Amino acid sequence: MSPISLESFERDALPTLLAYGEIPAISPAYDEHWREHGEIERATQLLAQWARDRALADFSVYVQTIEGRTPVLIVDVAATAPTIGTVVLYGHLDKQPPLGDWSEGLAPFSPTRRGDQLFARGLADDGYATFATLSALEDMERQGMAHARCVVLIEASEESGSPDLLAHLDLLATQLGDVELLICLDSGAITYDRLWVTTSLRGNLIAHVRVDVLERGQHSGSSSGVVPSSFRILRQLLDRVEDAATGRVLIPELHGEIPESHRVAAAAMTAEFGDVAGDEQPTISGLELMGDTPTDRLLQRTWSPTLSITGAGGVPSVENAGNVLRPFTELVLSLRLPPNVNGDDAAKVLTRVLTSDVPSNARVTVTTSPATGWLAPPLAPWLESALEEASVATFGKSVGYCGEGGTIPFLAQLGERYPAVQFVATGVLGPGSNAHGIDEMLDLPTMINVANAVSHILSAHAAATSR
Length: 467
Ligand SMILES: [Zn+2]
Fold this sequence. Notes:
Blueprint: H1 6-12, H2 14-21, H3 34-37, H4 39-52, E1 59-64, E2 72-77, E3 86-92, E4 112-114, E5 117-119, H5 123-143, E6 149-155, H6 165-176, E7 179-184, E8 196-201, E9 203-212, E10 218-219, H7 220-223, H8 230-241, H9 260-273, H10 276-279, H11 294-303, E11 306-313, E12 324-325, E13 328-337, H12 343-355, E14 363-371, E15 374-375, H13 381-395, E16 400-404, H14 409-417, E17 422-425, E18 441-443, H15 444-465
Parallel strand pairs: 3-6, 3-7, 7-17, 8-16
Antiparallel strand pairs: 1-2, 2-6, 4-5, 5-18, 8-15, 9-13, 9-14, 10-12, 11-13
């Protein structure tokens, strides 16, 4: 018996993965009419049907629905070992929007294969998770490898910050039982030559900030010099959040202490792989990067609070720019938060900073949507050796550990509910995978190696917890 191969995956899973790649299942934050459009529903039903066709001994597949929320796909696979606890295998099926025009010959919802790389929105982030987890379980049962009870949980609001997940977890609480291990397949990789396990994730705080000064727009010849510009006031408010010269976030509560072990790991990583955070950026030529050293950049990407402006309102496009004093300016602030800063606390502080002592007594409205980051708890000894064995057996190289700059709200949410849970956060989002950008790419051999590594980890878990 052999593990999952490219050939077996092409036969059993690839056609459905490609069909999923054609569905624009855009996450609700980017498609307020997601319900009427029905694409998330189509994607869910497609994956559910594929799941039902798996050759597993004892399992059930269903879609859990809650009025007004995105669904969750559940595949509950009975244990084949004398174990009590539950393993949750997590992924998501909602997608980021296309972002912009894709390169020649590629399109977000028309999957293209080049060699062993698949290009389409949402395959690497994170549609492959359903296929990798269930292929791994199917392969284990085919080979007679024992596993504990496994619940594959595929949500559909992750790219919006998982606003629907807690409600689903509430409904699932009894059914999930004692969750011992969470395997999350939505994370990143530094290289494609080994299994990468995530040690921390940053949080995310999205804030809509609007400054109003007029009831309606006015001729700038009559109002400028008299009515303060909403843009100028917003600029002053932003100066409270971030040092405009350096990009350093100025609110002390948004900074977290970096554990010494993470500093050491970042230095070791850049010693081996160079400027991992800097090299992968498609910068214009001659651009000077932030941070003095590659290690600075890696630590800043994984531990620093940062501000990005991701949207603007009340500002016409350049073709429509007239000589007016605009009535308001609105910006979308997207902050990344250190792994150990609570998102709700950060949202309160940010709102206070933006709304107190507002220049010229302008009207400021702030709405926030926070997600807390995550710091991996220490690994149980069985899991530490299982990860090493899994990486060596599937990739032929030792496991790697790294912090990530992105956010997966579910990990913090699950860790809060099940304090004893062990985590494995891994994934296929390596160099050139372009998650959230144009030309998103799934590297098929890496996906298969990750799926086979999941089998190893589940097998080691069953051995470690069997009575
Ligand atoms: Zn994702």
